[in-house]
Amino acid sequence: MAIQKKNAFSRRLPDLVTEELVSVLSQKKSFEFKQLFEVVHENLRQRNAASGGEEMLRLRAYEKLQNLVARGVVKKTGKSYKGDAAALAAMAAATAQAASAVVSKTQTAAAAATVVSKS
Fold first, then answer.
1. DSSP structure string for the chain
2. Tell me: the pLDDT tens digits for 72-116?
């Protein structure tokens, strides 16, 4: 049996940092980056997902925030950031749909591998 090689990169889902940024910015509040990072960091620590050190996490969060600003789902006014609730909700829904598709593909592949290994 030949091993299939995947030549193309698959599109990755938004990570936990982006997920937390979206959930915090969905509130009708405006945040400066320092306040925003403190909330996101605390939420990630509660989920036991804050790994790699605080400074690296701060850099990743800033990069993800700038990507959200570039997409137009977050507005930057001076030093404060405010999320567009409708755009963030649509983004969260699309992320959830993509995640469920990845999970179903993984389960299908695992089931196929089990059937192949039994025969």
1. -PPP---SPPPPPP-HHHHHHHHHHTSS-EEEHHHHHHHHHHHHHHTT---S-HHHHHHHHHHHHHHHHHHTSEEEETTEEEE-HHHHHHHHHHHHHHHHHHHHHHHHHHHHHHHHHH-
2. 999 999 999 999 988 888 888 887 787 777 777 777 766 766 666
Are the C-beta atoms of 81 and 37 separated by less than 8 Å?
no
Closest CA to 46 of 58, 38, 34: 38
Domain count, the chain: 1
Domain contains 11: no
Q: What is the CATH number of the domain that holds 90?
A: 1.10.10.10
Boundaries of domain holding 56: 16-118
